[in-house]
Amino acid sequence: MRILVVGGGGREHALCWALKRDTPEATLFAAPGNPGTAQLGSNLEIPATAVDSLVAAVRERRIDLTIVGPEAPLAAGLADRLRAAGHLVFGPSRAAARIESSKAFAKDVMRRAGVPTPESRSFTALEPALAYIRAHTEPLVVKASGLAAGKGAVVCGTREEAARTARAMLAEGALGDAGREIVVEDFLEGEELSVLALTDGERMLVLPAAQDHKRLCDGDTGPNTGGMGAYCPVSCATSELLERVRRQVLEPTIRELAQGGAPYQGVLYAGLMLVGPPPSTDGTLYVLEFNCRFGDPEAQAVLPVLPRGVTRHLADIAAGGWNPVETCMAATGGGAAVATVLAAPGYPEKPEVGAAILVPRDVEPGTLLFHAGTFRDPDGTLRVHGGRVLTVTGLGETVPQAAERSAAACERIAFQGKTWRRDIGWREIQRAGAA
Q1: 120 in a domain, yes or no?
Q2: Residue 45 in domain
Q3: Less packed terminus of the chain by CB within 10 Å, N or C?
């Protein structure tokens, strides 16, 4: 097969790695890709949102299957254009991708489907938003409705902070088009889970749950980011809990989208809050958000623990001949992965780029290195090119073992101002210590 992966981050490198593991004979392309994907295939110098150029490249290079990594090209209708031209593509239509590109739309879908989600209101005008915030209990959450690269949700401890956040988004354009509509939501406290499922719009295969770490600093402090790390699996996400997620969250959402004229094909990501005494496996489930693609950095933790052959599911879904024999997929042999993001100094507000990156030839046994914000200069030196630079995934029989390997490798990789969390997977490590 000739396969194109659209995107240039750590998630896309992980997808290319999984594809090459499953189908070593495949010819891989990535657009635009990065130095990591270049080691597995050929990079095409086409931005992920250049829809016309991507459709032309698929035709000219006789691509058999396109897998769309990021949300922006899906929201721009890339999957629609490829299907209309007769090409196989894994990823939802523009209409279905609104489940992520508009949080207000997602809330409406959940209300109609009876999917549990925190109480909220959506606003496009500032004064009604401020009036609602003044009457709201503290704390509360203000979210940009549009795509904000994982940085559009602000947990506000006070109504004053929420008012400032709403004003920045609606009146001052702090997040551009993403913040032209906002969602003001009740704050919930509990354990967050990321649950991804492959679907053709009717059948569904739920993958092992992961847990993301959004805050910049250890102890879940500092500003929200696109994600500083993730681990998989999560012990409180039992098979019984994942079955509840399938029944109460994923299937109703898929049905509602189809009834609304937006059948969903691809991977559906549910960002969940499990509210109950920790570690709660029977607490109340709430959906905080949906994403229309593999998570980043969740993909770098989930894909390595899946059994070989998972990418065959993507091809079969795209071709319309998918017939999975199971509803949930377990991690291979009970294995675990901890993915730690190495970020540039100044991330997430103003990352500093250009620094040289030194990676030992043998980083650490039992680790994978996924490129994200990197590039090679004309001399071949690897340099920082974005906020999230590398994802270092440690593998092991348990989360504590995988975390130890990830942290050891992170210590050995060097670039100026390197920023990373040393506590990825801390809840699971605590649970293992208490067992």
Answers
A1: no
A2: yes
A3: C
Please check whether residue 342 is in contact with residue 385, taking contact to mean a CB–CB distance below 8 angstroms. Answer: no
| pTM (two decimals) | 0.95
Phi-psi region of 176 (alpha: psi -120 to 50; beta: other; left: phi over 0): left
391 contacts 337 by C-beta, under 8 angstroms: no
State whether 316 and 418 are in the same domain. no
Taking the C-alpha atoms of residue 358 and residue 416, their distance in angstroms, rounded to an integer, is: 10
8 A C-beta contact, residue 46 and residue 53: yes
Task: Determine if the peptide bond prior to 365 is cis (ω within 30°).
Answer: no
Cβ atoms of residues 47 and 76 within 8 Å: no
Structure tokens at 104: 């207000």
User: DSSP code of 359?
Assistant: -
**Helix 103-113 with 94-101: angle, nearest 10 deg:** 100
What is the model's pLDDT at position 146? 94
Assigned domain for 101 exists: no
The ranges of the chain with pLDDT < 50 are none
- What backbone phi and psi angles, to 5 degrees, belong to 208? -60, 145
Residue 22 domain boundaries: 2-93
